[in-house]
Amino acid sequence: MKKYPMLEKKMSELIELQKKNETQLAKTDAQLAKTDAQLAKTDAQLSRTTEILSNIGINLGKVTEEYFYDTLKEKMSLGEIKFDAISFNLQHKYKNKQDEFNIVMYNGKALAIIEIKHKVHPSDLEKLSSKKVESFRELFPQYKHHKIYLGIGGFSIPESIVKEALKKGIAVLKQKGEVTLIRDEKLKAY
Question: Which long-range contacts (CB under 8 A, 24 or more apart) does 27-32 make?
Fold first, then answer.
């Protein structure tokens, strides 16, 4: 190859460049592997965080529903209307329709559908006044002649929603003060 020193030099440079590229590619592959591992850890953490937040939301909703159910169970009235029975988280499927109603109170002529949210949003009020009544009538045709009254309850209800609900004739249920039931009949010292 002495005849072509320029070619030999270029070949040598190309071989050296190829070695550098292979070294750089190996480093890049190693970095990509580290990045992939970190992304996998991040995805796993995000999944755990999503699950935790979802559970918190579900728990807040259940606590809120239970609070208002216990309150209404004691009173069994809405406005001046007295009710004889109350259902909690009433779920029903009829034909191809299915729905759930947080609290329903009944008497021989009327019923009340109470939707409970931890924090009430305008869309909750709209859904209650339009979709929930229609859904209840479809799912429970035996109550077609009953008057239906509505209520919306929550631990947090913006004043604008309170005004809109009252304007529509919908009862508003809010927590007020510190109402706590204390059972201490068998209290003992430890």
Answer: none
Half-sphere exposure of 138 (CA within 13 A, CB side): 14
Q: What is the pLDDT of residues 29-76, one digit of tens each?
A: 889 989 989 999 999 998 998 888 888 888 888 999 999 999 899 889
Which residues does 143 contact at the CB level (< 8 Å), separation at least 6?
111, 136, 137
Give the DSSP per-residue string, 102-146.
EEEEE-SSEEEEEEEEEE--HHHHHHIIIIIHHHHHHH-GGGTTS
Q: Cα dihedral sign for 41, 43, 49, 51?
A: negative
Burial state string for 62-89 with b = 16 or more CB within 10 A and e = fewer than 16:
eebbebbbeebeeebebeebebeebebe
Specify whether the CB–CB gap between 102 and 127 falls below 8 A.
Answer: no
| Partners of 154 in beta bridges | 117, 174
The answer to whether 125 touches 142, Cβ cutoff 8 Å, is no
This prediction has a pTM of: 0.72
Q: Per-residue pLDDT tens for 95-125?
A: 888 999 999 999 999 999 999 999 999 999 9
**Rounded Cα–Cα distance for residues 163 and 169 (Å):** 10
